[in-house]
Structures are given as C-alpha cells and as structure tokens.
Design brief:
By secondary structure, this protein is α+β, with helices and mostly antiparallel strands. 25% of the residues lie in helices and 41% in strands.
Length: 131
C-alpha cells in the first residue's frame, strides 16, 4: 500500500471515528492489530476486541484532525478528541509490521484542555505542537 492509499484510509478512518460509525472506523485495522494507551498502560489485541471496547463506551466522541504526517510504515495524527464535551489534544501513532499496515497503534492525550481554552481558543489545544 502506497502513501496515498494509506492517507486515504486514514482519512476514512477519522471520518468514521467522528461519525461514531464503528464498522467503518475499524476497517483500517488488521485482525491481529494492537491498540495501546500509554498513559493508562491499557493494551487491546485484535480488531474485534478493539471495536467491541469502543462500542461499549456509552459516550459520544468527536474527532477533529489537526495534522497528519507520515510515510511508509509510520503515520502520526494530531487531533482534538472531545469526550463528554471535554476536548483533549491527542496524538495517534500508527505503524506497520512486515509491510502489512497498520499493525500497532498508540494513542496519548497530550494534555486536557480544561483551563487552556482562554489561551488557545475553543478547543483548548495550541495551534501548533509542541505548545
């Protein structure tokens, strides 16, 4: 898969994530994908388990992509994740394994935006990262 195809797949993934379309959102993952949340130490293995864990969350989430960079086996997406009305600056790192993409994804919230909106605008996240 070339960079253009990966970028298009990521664009579809983020649009489906924002729309809470759990079926389309998880099409990007391989069956043996691993999702990691470094801030909590949580690790979810397998596409169906990842999808089930998200579908079980009772709250609607919104995703606003700020910037996406990458090539080949490594892609980073900076976005504002709004959960329960509270936006957080977030980074998603997706990487491949042996040319099959994506195999692993890590997500970290850079900082909660509580108290930052006055300095950084409505999302609470700075326009450029790192702040």
């Amino acid at each position: 898969m070339g960079d253009r195809e990966i970028r298009a797949a990521l664009d579809r993934h983020w649009a489906a994530s924002d729309a809470n379309d759990f079926e389309d959102e998880h099409q990007i993952y391989r069956e043996d994908a691993v999702l990691e949340y470094p801030q909590s130490g949580e690790r979810i293995r397998g596409r169906r388990k990842i999808q089930s864990s998200r579908a079980a969350q009772p709250n609607r989430k919104r995703f606003a992509v700020r910037r996406m960079i990458g090539a080949g086996d490594l892609w980073v997406t900076e976005y504002v994740l709004t959960y329960d009305g509270r936006p957080s600056c977030t980074v998603s790192i997706m990487s491949s394994s042996m040319g099959r993409w994506p195999a692993r994804r890590s997500i970290s919230a850079i900082r909660s935006s509580r108290g930052l909106r006055a300095r950084n605008g409505s999302s609470g996240c700075p326009e450029t990262w790192p702040p």
